[in-house]
Amino acid sequence: MQVHNADIAAVFEEIADLLELGDANPFRVRAYRNAARVVSGLSLDLAARLAEGAELPKLPGIGADLGGKIHEIAASGSCKLLAQLRSKFPSGITELLRLPGLGPKRVRALHDARIDSLEDLRRAARAGKLPALPGFGEKTTQRITHAAEAQLGTVRRFKLAVAAQYAEPLAKYLGATVAGSYRRMKDTVGDLDFLVVSGEPEKAVERFVRYAEVKEVLARGTTRSSARLACGIQADLRVVPPQSFGAALHYFTGSKSHNIAVRKLGIARGLKINEYGVWRGEKRIAG
Known about the structure:
Blueprint: H1 5-21, H2 26-40, H3 46-51, H4 64-76, H5 80-86, H6 93-97, H7 104-112, H8 118-126, H9 138-153, E1 158-159, H10 160-174, E2 177-179, H11 180-183, E3 188-189, E4 191-197, H12 201-209, E5 214-220, E6 224-229, E7 234-240, H13 245-253, H14 256-268, E8 272-273, E9 278-280, E10 283-286
Parallel strand pairs: 4-7
Antiparallel strand pairs: 1-3, 2-4, 5-6, 6-7, 8-9, 9-10
Helix pairs in contact: 1-2, 1-5, 1-7, 8-9
């Protein structure tokens, strides 16, 4: 599995959270947070550089110990220290640490109250138990409860810069164009939409599902497929013939409300609508 800078940074950030949750030395916590910040801001692909046999460049605040962990994460996607820290806490703690508004101090208060997952948090909130905990008032409780409900009911979203580290290599591998919210440059991305032009759609789908970072194939057809990547983001593939590319790119890039508006304009003008665009008879007049 290919490891991206975002994966290395995420490991360091989780280590910092778990160290702080365990009341570790603040300087050690800060070192891992700094490492996460430095790595996430790099344009250089660290894992690729190491795979080529090159040395790590000098990075601010990253010495031999953290450098060794970068080597370890680049090779395996994780490191022994993270596994050791995770073993000290219930598995749901990681979900809580990712929730907006919940830092390690509040998560520690939840853990002390035996609230160790998003579902535990939702049940405790409904029972009115949260305001009594340290660091939780009425407004904080409402905000965190809403965030938990949203997290339980929606897919995880990725910052655009993080999503790019997974989207661009897969697009290059497929010879695809990335559409959807990623192409619209939204601040966060819930999934990735790929458009491939091919006269042999089944081969394109087969190549997609065999991608090294595909963890789970969610759906598979003759011209489309969906899969979940190892990082957790969902990738959706659509294969179209050359003559449909422009209309399909417009359709799969536009938001739902935009596509509905365009469709209404076409219908109002008496145009026939196909799956991707606006047509009149056999002649396409708008994509």
